[in-house]
Amino acid sequence: MSTAARVMPHATSRAAVLDVIRAAGTISRVGLIQATGFTGATISTVVRRLIDDGLVLEIGRAESTGGKPRVLLQLNPSSRYAVGVHLDHAGITYVLTDLAGAVVARMSRAGAGAEDPPVVVSRMAGEVRNFIEGAGIDHGRVLGLGLVSPGPLTPASGMRLTPPTMRHWEEFPLDQAVSEATGMPVILENDATAAALGEHWSGVVRGTPNFAALYMGSGIGTGLMIDGMAYRGVSGNAGEIGHVCLDVAGPDCWCGARGCTEVLAGPAAVVAAARADAAISRAAGLTNAPGGPRLSVAADFAAVTRAARHGEGGARALLERSARYLAVAARTLANIMDLELLVLTGPSLGNAGSIYLPVVQEELDRAFFARGSHTVAVRLSDSAATAPAIGAATMVLQAELVPLRQGLHLHQAVAAAEEVALAAPPSAPAPSA
Amino acid sequence: MSTAARVMPHATSRAAVLDVIRAAGTISRVGLIQATGFTGATISTVVRRLIDDGLVLEIGRAESTGGKPRVLLQLNPSSRYAVGVHLDHAGITYVLTDLAGAVVARMSRAGAGAEDPPVVVSRMAGEVRNFIEGAGIDHGRVLGLGLVSPGPLTPASGMRLTPPTMRHWEEFPLDQAVSEATGMPVILENDATAAALGEHWSGVVRGTPNFAALYMGSGIGTGLMIDGMAYRGVSGNAGEIGHVCLDVAGPDCWCGARGCTEVLAGPAAVVAAARADAAISRAAGLTNAPGGPRLSVAADFAAVTRAARHGEGGARALLERSARYLAVAARTLANIMDLELLVLTGPSLGNAGSIYLPVVQEELDRAFFARGSHTVAVRLSDSAATAPAIGAATMVLQAELVPLRQGLHLHQAVAAAEEVALAAPPSAPAPSA
């Protein structure tokens, strides 16, 4: 299990209070009592510690509503920062967020491409250093680095069964190498789950507790949010709709199965079909010579999308065919999770989302199994390209707020809250032994 | 949302303590402190209330290990009971469980068949009354009735988009009618989720916090357990793998989509294929005359299974074909949920599970996406026919233990625990307003 799978937001009253303050902007202690349901004693203790740690500020008093004016609290955004890094074959995206999750800097650099992993990691470390310095942020206030890589994650490295474009990263101890090269704590997450966290924290569905983020970059996956927490499954690999079977007699996929969403509808499949068609290739500016120079799959996919937007009918037909497959996979996901909200995100849907959205929505309206009970709304991300890096940075912030624990369960969270509540010993009788 | 979707085990320290006592058999207060992580004051308060309510007994002292002998606690199993009823086209199964979840009586009666819903409900009420009296249980100790019906559930009735065999139950207010006819509180759940709860409470995976129950009765579905709680989705309809698409060009399904698991591999599909083959029909004793008398789908499916066991090769080939489709659907589920454990359950897998299990296991071993991280174990239920009714009864028990709340979230559960912990006011300072 990756470190990331152990992050559990809201598992303590400290994290819950901090998150309510973040969401509210400014709020009084009485407001916190009402919003959280915690007792006055708990709020008092938790807020005092947050102020002592510099995370929360008292910023004056609200206008009187008859009684004594209330002291307002807000986050101290510049008290802590986190770096989010999205490593992909096609590009590396860096973001720096403050404690409130606001993006204070962003930067894109060349992707991993065919370079050796140690070379890429060394370059990343230098880029991170320059990025933080360029933003004028004190290194001591940067809590750590959230790192996004294409799934699936494994205990050793974060990547083992890798997509074809990054096969030479198999068995490379990615998080450990980046931590050593940067001197920062590193939390690893897959792209789709990080994107869901980014959408939850700052995207079009900000604050929505239950939704799925359907992610398309070079591949296809989903990040799942349940009750405001990322659902990761037992090994951090939940949401793999790129590899659900849509056609039992379909073509072989690199994952070892056949008829997967990705082999039928993924960006690589769209680009391959575009290359096989002279008119589409010409309109999109693709190079057809076998063995000739090629851009990344994501860049080629973006070129096909531009051609479709400029009226190339064949390109549009390819994208709509891909969208119909993706829509069926989205319905599978909605039927299994009983979803009411789906966000289309990731770099490739940032480009082509307006073509995919109506097709996915129509499929869910027509054939979602529990449509007698409720609809499934589909929305297009407004930060599709940067959502994973933002999500990775927020994981670092949350890890600071909620110390990482292995196997924390609800009754332990309840116990933790009770310990806070009982910081001052109550007069209740001790248990008779 | 059905009432059932609001049940949340372990949401209070009372429920957590009771569940630890149930799981432990006997345990001391000190043992409870260690097992739950709660403070001594909390355990003392919670246990006192459970004893006052008659749910827990003090049963003498443990042998001394040097210090003062510790008082042992255990559930008072005969203090409360619950009825579980599984209503299906093919049969109605009744179970009566005590507070510990042990089945004290079970009974099967004729299914809903083609009868009108009010007639069936009236008959059920009489059968429940006789069932409780026959078991010699005081009605006053029966907390309520857990009712299982084929999904999907809707707010009005529990059933709206119904399987073909029960289409005349559409829009019938099932839980309300049963509650009025029996005079008991009713909690409604779909068959697959109830089966997962039954397996979790008393089946081969007893106590396992994360698994899916793949359920096959007349149809196909799954119940999902996450961290010891049933995951139901936004409307109680999660886990619908009977209606994920395995073949985009496949045959139309009654649900409005095409190529679904159920239309390709469900019991009705197997029985239809068996009827179309004279040799299999003869071996299985199926009646082929159009319009002639037919048993239920589940009964016909059981007959085909018996023929396969007795060496009818065509029948076995049909079941193995169904198993291969079901295995692909199981892989879809495992890829989306990142599962490590799958239980095959429900009446039809109670009959044919030994044919399905190796096929499902082989598919997951071969092509589960995160197989580089971990395997997915497949187990066969040892109570496949009664698991849903048992699960429904346990929902009633849990509802007693944890009062039903709408939209209870973690921080509210934490707050609830804090209120228990702070039952005696602490000396902590009040918040400055």
Query: Remind me, CATH topology of the largest domain in chain A?
Result: Nucleotidyltransferase, domain 5
CATH level-four homologous superfamily name of the largest domain in chain A: ATPase, nucleotide binding domain
Assembly state (oligomeric): homodimer
- Alpha-carbon distance between the termini of chain A? 39 Å
Provide the succession of SSEs of chain A. HEHHEEEEEHEHEHEEEHHHHHEHEHH
* Total count of strands of chain A: 13
Query: If you compute it from the alpha carbons, what radius of gyration of chain A comes out, rounded to the nearest whole angstrom?
Result: 23 Å
Class computed from helices, strands and strand pairing of chain A: alpha/beta
- Count of folded domains of chain A: 3
Overall mean confidence score, pLDDT of chain A: 83
Number of helices, counting only DSSP H or I runs of 4 residues or more of chain A: 14
Which runs of chain A of at least 5 residues are low in confidence (pLDDT < 50)? 1-11, 155-161, 402-433
